[in-house]
Amino acid sequence: MDGLPQRVSIREVGLRDGLQNEAPLPTEAKVRLLEALASTGVPRIELTAFVSPRAVPAMADAAAMAAAAGTFRDDGPEFSALVASPGGARRAVDAGITTVEYVVSASDGHSRANVKATTDEALARTSGVADIVHGAGGRLEVIIATAWDCPFDGPTDPDRTVRVAAGALALGADSLAVADTIGTATPGRVTALISRIRVELSPSAAQPITLGAHFHNTRGAGLACAWAAVQAGVTQLDAAVGGFGGCPFAPGASGNIATEELVYLLDDSGIATGIDLEAALAAAALVEEIVGRPGASNLLRAGDRKRGRTPVSTDLNTIASDAAS
Amino acid sequence: MDGLPQRVSIREVGLRDGLQNEAPLPTEAKVRLLEALASTGVPRIELTAFVSPRAVPAMADAAAMAAAAGTFRDDGPEFSALVASPGGARRAVDAGITTVEYVVSASDGHSRANVKATTDEALARTSGVADIVHGAGGRLEVIIATAWDCPFDGPTDPDRTVRVAAGALALGADSLAVADTIGTATPGRVTALISRIRVELSPSAAQPITLGAHFHNTRGAGLACAWAAVQAGVTQLDAAVGGFGGCPFAPGASGNIATEELVYLLDDSGIATGIDLEAALAAAALVEEIVGRPGASNLLRAGDRKRGRTPVSTDLNTIASDAAS
């Protein structure tokens, strides 16, 4: 498997992206989930979003989640929070968060709907966000939303995505991630965009840029996109426990790629994640219990081959004998 | 996208693998589905299986399905049927089927459960099957089941899979496909096995062997495996309309990779399938109606980006404004 990394760092986004469209859950339940997630060995956990509690009631307890994260040991996961403005960044650092994600949409349509500003206006705010985060001794990642497609503007011109990526680095981002916000990307276009960003923005071929990626499984291609991204040089991937993140008003529509499925896929392909799959499956079962409905994890239904959770029935695939016929 | 094929030929296996574990449906309903599938432009359709009607009641109408296929125009799809013995092959050609798939499991455990014979015994029957099929002017594909993992024996030694593939060719197979029978494969192992078969069994580097592959999405990795297979040189893929093929006794467990999701993924990645996606989505809706329950197609829930079926709500992924905060 030439060219593949030995290790991929997964960021668990279930507490934020997985739950942001759900009815608000008690903070106590989310802290229980946080503890289950931390016990899986996942290296990074996105805790919450410091955004308008009117727009996203499910994230209204952001400061409480940050406080809960503060009780973990120093050798635990790295905690982060998402913001959409300098004001959000201020509240995040005031709550003790030092790893901050600031979102800039590569398409004007989504940017306007999301933060009432064009892409360029939102991008220009990066330096203000960076000042706040760096002033608190923190680290800033810019997540480029609608990197492939926009629900309003259609396909995003790759030139725009590359320009936003370059601009974010120039304005203070310490790292970048590209997001398939509406779950329409496919591996061919993932390879093309990631490869282009890597070529154009790496300091040199010997010093490739560290790039993260964020996929939704809305049309079934999420894990295929994640695999294509890893092949193209991505070493940081977002995923949500249980595959939550789907719109709760569209039953059956799946959301983020499921953390446990990504762990299974990478580990079995020889790429280490540091995550215990059995603990990840337990966390997926817990989030279903807390939310009160099934998520979108096929693996949780089927079980892990290696640990004997495969159902005894093999009816699923048996060809059936006609040797006697 | 160097090295990728311009075209991939999809074989629709929904009428066989998709329905074989369901309660038997009226032949009339299956013929309606067959007509819907043929109208999508899919180049190949697996109609049925000539196996024991006691073991697989859902396929008891195999001859009737073959007769229905006989009414299609000559420029329509290529129809095939699956068999598990020379006796099945005889019944298939007697029913007018000229493209036959014979299954050999690469693992003894699955082979015994499936056809009451070891791998070597089942493989040896290939020549008898080939004689019958070739005697009728037909074409024989050997599908190697449990090519990666066996539900009884665990991981299949790649040496075994390669040996079965070579044996099948020597005994009269006109083409080969490898099947991830229990949906446990991952892209890293797909790349490894496909690459090895291509290297060891191609007549020469300039004349690569034509190889098919068959994946299940049981653990979420089906489309990622399909993509890895295409990258490794596979140009023929099986898929089932609506993602059926899951065990009906394990709700939520998904089955074959969904045809419409594979079409979306390949077309959007620049690889032609010749299949009309809108017609494929209509066929997926029809199979759900006929079977009477939802399948496992995320795309059917979410809609195709290009044809404006994306739900109006963008709540799914919106980050939500805190510009005012």
Overview of this protein structure:
Chains A, B: Pfam families: HMGL-like (PF00682). Chains A, B: Belongs to the HMG-CoA lyase family. Chains A, B: Keywords: Lyase, Metal-binding. The structure is a homodimer of 325-residue chains. The first copy, chain A, has 325 residues and is of the alpha/beta class. Chain A has a single domain, classed as Aldolase class I (TIM Barrel, Alpha-Beta Barrel). In chain A, 39% of the residues lie in helices and 15% in strands. In chain A, strands 1-2-3-4-5-8-9-10 form an 8-stranded parallel beta barrel, surrounded by 8 helices. A two-stranded antiparallel sheet of chain A has the order 6-7. In chain A, helix 10 links the parallel strand 9 and strand 10. In chain A, helix 8 packs parallel to helix 9 and helix 9 runs parallel beside helix 10. The longest helix of chain A is centred in the middle third of the chain and has 15 residues. Chains A and B meet through helix 4, helix 5, helix 9, helix 10 and helix 11 of A and helix 4, helix 5, helix 9, helix 10 and helix 11 of B.
Q: What are the key terms here?
A:
325 residues; alpha/beta; TIM Barrel; eight-stranded parallel beta barrel; two-stranded antiparallel ribbon; globular
Q: Count of helices of chain A?
A: 13
Mean model confidence by pLDDT of chain A: 91
% residues in beta strands of chain A = 5-15%
Coarse structural class of chain A: alpha/beta
CATH class value of chain A: Alpha Beta
